[in-house]
Amino acid sequence: MRGSTAGLPDTLKSHHNAPYYAILSILDAIFSSLVVAPLVVGYWRSVWELMGIYVYPEDILISSCISTGIGIVGHLIFTLPQHAFETYLHPDRNRILFYVMSRVYTVCFAFICVNGWRGPWQLLDIYTKNELLTVVAATAVGFVALTAMRALRNVSATPFTVATDSVKGYFEVLTMFRVAMSERTSLYILDCLFSVLVIGTLVVFVWRGAWALIDIFLFPENETLSAWGSLIVGYSAVAIAFMLQPLMRWLCDRITGFIRLLVADIFLILSLIGTVNVWRGIWNLLNIYLLPNNLELSCWITHWICLIILILLGCSNSLLVRGVYIDAEEPAGKCVVFPCHYLRLIFQEQKLKKLRSEQNKTELTNVKPFENNHIISVQNEPPALNHKEGDA
User: Fold this and answer.
1) pLDDT tens digits, one per residue of 311-323
2) Which residues form the domain of 218?
């Protein structure tokens, strides 16, 4: 989850004509919304509910504290030594080892991410209840704090984000202040702690508050109608956000400074409304329709199906909530472009391979024959050898 378009090559668009690129963009949005989003939500729901079934089901407070501990310690374990992962698990060293260990990394980190949200979320439920004033207060704290730190971008999630399992940056976890471990180890550790404990917790505040407000206002007396309503509202908001994206990009190309940041944040709020509703709708509909009398089996089914399909599609990293992204850190209008590049990256890679192949053929064609001084003709025998045979 989360993500950014910073660092994506501009050639994604320049190598294709406008209509072709527009079609790929639409297909990416559909793929992210209708394929990746349900799979990610299904996986998160399975781990979340299974923790409630297996870990102190009779004491929700202990269960929540254990999830919180798993989330905090696990995030630090995967964040602090990220440079070692990048160095020793690189495919140039051993491609098979990289593939196996990278998927193990994703599975373990995804489990940690779900627990990192489940713990604080349920602790908020325990101590603040789902009363309107307390929900609004907790949500406002998270929202204002993230906005003030230019970290509101971190509330974004699928269907507005697709994280592919590409080699580059597979183990990278961005921190709030971008402190490199090589600069100063103590500052790097503090940066990691701040990113995990503060930014991560504030994001949970916002999400939990938005979810709880929907519970309060959207058909609270009818769970099924509420779930369907949430799904409809969510996908409607998602569709509107994707359709507005070209206009928002055009606008942000022409404004700068605080106004650009404000516009980007307002657009993020629209995407948050769509995202939370989509997640809530899919989550609750799975509870209602998929083996409602056997929650344990229902969760195990969605767990393995969703995880395996995401790995096969090459976007299992979409399960992870990691890294801290800064609002409007991308140049100009790219700050409002959702990082849903999947098909575009595939076609881009194929295009680059084709260009390299054509370039190599051209270079080989332009090489003049017998330019290499190390080429030796062996068709004729050496004169000295012929002379000796004649003497004999």
Assistant:
1) 999 999 999 999 9
2) 11-370
